[in-house]
Amino acid sequence: MKKLINSPETVLTDALAGFAAAHPELTVDLDQRVIARGTRPGTPKVAVVSGGGSGHEPLHGGFVGPGMLDAACPGEIFTSPVPDQVLAAAQAVHTGAGVVLVVKNYTGDVLNFRLAAELAEEEGIEIRTVLVDDDVAVEDSTWTAGRRGTGATVVVEKTTGALAERGATLAEVAAIGKRANAASRSFAVALTAATVPAAGKPGFDLAEDEIEVGVGIHGEPGRRREPLRPARELAAEVVDTILADHDLTAGDEVIALVNGLGGTPLLELYVVYGAIHARLAERGITIARRLVGSYVTSLDMAGFSLTLTKADPQLLDLWDAPVSTPALTWS
Amino acid sequence: MKKLINSPETVLTDALAGFAAAHPELTVDLDQRVIARGTRPGTPKVAVVSGGGSGHEPLHGGFVGPGMLDAACPGEIFTSPVPDQVLAAAQAVHTGAGVVLVVKNYTGDVLNFRLAAELAEEEGIEIRTVLVDDDVAVEDSTWTAGRRGTGATVVVEKTTGALAERGATLAEVAAIGKRANAASRSFAVALTAATVPAAGKPGFDLAEDEIEVGVGIHGEPGRRREPLRPARELAAEVVDTILADHDLTAGDEVIALVNGLGGTPLLELYVVYGAIHARLAERGITIARRLVGSYVTSLDMAGFSLTLTKADPQLLDLWDAPVSTPALTWS
């Protein structure tokens, strides 16, 4: 295992300390493991909080800031944050208008966020939960009942964060998050497996010419293994797989996230983006907005995922709203 | 070789087509291979143009936009753009106030940009060249006379771009670029070699526990090979190597770029950043501004580079100026 770490035991602590030093505009509680905005809103607003296992950076800490998350709570590598940690994140940023929890659909996360929600409600903090379950690859798995939550998390966090910023109610912010999730589908292809530091070796074995189609962001098995093919063919297959599961039709617009899984350079992501753009154009679907980069990663895994969100004027307006976070910034 | 490409022959063409589709706010000439801003300035301003071999994305095309480059011209993978291409980039964006060419110090680039400058001058376009040579690892190499140009390119492009935006003269913009370069030093460590698509195999061999210290962004040999060590020790060695070659002293401030080389995930870069921050603090040096991410890459190489620029009020002011490009945006 070749990694830039001090030890498998301290990787999260060390990375969080580095994150805190690199982002003095945020408040990082290294004991509680909560990343929060550095300034409190002047008037009460709905807080948007997310979290999940680490190893998916910049998700979620990289999306904390004006226009997106109020706080994030990173668990150990590929491990849900504990309920007390989620509670601490909610407590750190709630201002009386309630808290929306954005939760990726994995059994551990769902359980721990539910417990945290109960604890918060007991303290008088009103909670709504938005579950993200966009991955069309598998229904149920070793990690999940139902579909896995992956790239759509970025769209859900961006749109809920933007609406909360505008002073919407708790119900409205939760509703837009659920709508953004329902409008989104994702699918991923791995060229290599991720190596969890504590394990010290890749999570699965792939032959030199083999890829895992439909892989999860923890290296969960996909639909099948097949030979590596030209990016154009892979991209077409990924687009077609998503469209088979989506209500997109000719004339529709989408927000597209072409996402690197951690070990894939930007040059390759642009090759993939071009192929996805072309395939969608053949189907009469236009990419209205896009991100090309590594936003929801799986440690050092090489590969990419595609997330397509069916766009409408409200979602596009919220997508375009100003955002200022370590990983996503526009005005 | 496992890469998301269509073929080694078309990788640059395909990536540029994808880049053009992903960034409709820019003008991409796919025949000339010139990436330029989508809108022309209202009044004449100095244009800042850069370029170099591809495989270092987001450098340079990802830095085209208001507040930074006016145009970029990407060569083939690890190969300088040709003189006519550089000329076309200068012609595309000059408005009568002259053009600053930012050139990384590699023999091919220096030669081709010099020829392009001569051609442009013949056409009445006034040219100044800023040579970037910040890598302290080696003096002369198979690719270079003198030091190699690496991470400081980001600082040079940001500060020249910001000053040009404010209406400074050609001499002033060139002068700030030279000053930013002179204030910068870099050093890189590779955990793996990059694989050039046309070669189909890694550029050099490293054992499972071995790293290349002082590596170049084309995989040029560094100072030595040594066993992989904890990130803390590597970071300290890199900081100390740079400080030994820099005039930084206790009390100074720096702009720090902790840069991934293409195959290293953000989690690891934050571990490295924390260690660099701590080592500099021990020496009494404060990081006033920083970037943590993959900005000057070497295809899929795993590893990192550190660039330290001695800060002063003018450089910090130009660094903080608004920028809106695919890879760097703030307001």
Largest interface: A-B, 60 and 60 residues
Strand order within the widest beta sheet of chain A: 1-2-4-3-5-6
- What would you call the structural class of chain A? alpha/beta
Strands of chain A, total number: 14
Please tell me how large the radius of gyration of chain A is: 19 Å
Question: Which bin fits the share of residues in helices of chain A?
Answer: 25-40%
CATH topology name of the largest domain in chain A, in short, is Rossmann fold
Please state the average pLDDT score of chain A: 96
H/E element string of chain A?
HEEEEHEHEHHEEEHEHEEHEE
Domain unit count of chain A? 2
Number of helices of chain A: 8
Q: Report the CATH superfamily of the largest domain in chain A.
A: Dihydroxyacetone kinase, domain 1
What would CATH call the architecture of the largest domain in chain A? 3-Layer(aba) Sandwich
Q: What is the multimeric organization of the chains shown? A: homodimer
Q: How do the helices and strands line up, and which of them pair or pack?
A:
Two copies of one chain form a homodimer.
Chain A: H1 11-22, E1 26-29, E2 34-37, E3 47-54, E4 71-77, H2 83-93, E5 99-104, H3 107-122, E6 127-132, H4 152-165, H5 170-182, E7 184-190, E8 210-213, E9 224-227, H6 231-243, E10 253-260, H7 266-282, E11 286-293, E12 303-310, H8 313-320, E13 323-324, E14 329-330
Parallel strand pairs in A: 3-4, 3-5, 5-6, 10-11
Antiparallel strand pairs in A: 1-2, 2-4, 7-8, 7-12, 8-9, 10-12, 13-14
